[in-house]
Amino acid sequence: MKRRVLFVCTANSARSLMAEALLRKMAGDEFEVASAGTEPAAPHPLALQVLSEAGIPTEGLSSKPLQEVENQHWDYVIMLCERATRECGSICQPAQQIAWDFPDPAATNRHGTFVLTLKDLKERIKLFATVHQKVTRKLSAENPVALFKALSDEFRLAALLLIRDQGSLCVCELTEAFDVPQPKVSRHLSTLKEVGLLNAERRGQWIYYSIDSEMPGWVAQIVNAAADNSRQLVEIPLRRLEAMSERPGVPCP
């Protein structure tokens, strides 16, 4: 089954349309691709022009509102601008949320700017397609570098250890525990899930994350050792979680 990728930006007239066409051209056998905008406008003529000049099909490309697709299942949601990341950081859960930031070429309305944007998008999408091939779904089992890179971030390590301690947690609980914005939490959880450290499970309206019980034994040993020797990372988050539980009637946002 193809994995589904949704590109999101503000107008869905240039960046996200170009990204949709690029990924479909580069890895259409691996991914089902679409794009949408928070405030959609018509496809920009220069976006369609530079795609055609690069030999990338533009048939079927159209701008559409995010509301039209956000209730569908997506494996990846890639935000292409800071505004989309800020406004849409938690849509389409439990999709992996990925935040990129590309300047809108429509702001200059210059052919050369659109060409440069297409080039930059192509490089990023090529990397995405390479990393997310089906053979690398569980990177930790085959690629220790990806595992240690994921664990090298202090927040990701602390979040992993807190989830391990609690059994399972949802994004809103982690947001409260670490006192950080929800989009940041979602991005880091996606990284941990991608390397095979976490599972995501929908329970009613919420998505809960837990330790992946199928992780290789050597990975479990590393996680357990980190938990035994890094208790200080979760002391304050644990107190915040306890305070949250003591406030009756405070639901997840």
UniProtKB/TrEMBL annotation:
Transmembrane segments: none
GO molecular function: DNA-binding transcription factor activity
Gene Ontology BP terms: response to arsenic-containing substance
InterPro entries in UniProt: ArsR-like_HTH, HTH_ArsR_DNA-bd_dom, Ptyr_pPase, Ptyr_pPase_sf, WH-like_DNA-bd_sf, WH_DNA-bd_sf
NCBIfam families listed in its UniProt record: HTH_metalloreg, PRK10141.1
Domain HTH arsR-type: 136-234
Organism (species): Marinobacter salinexigens
Protein name as it appears in the record: Metalloregulator ArsR/SmtB family transcription factor
Alphabetical UniProt keywords: Arsenical resistance
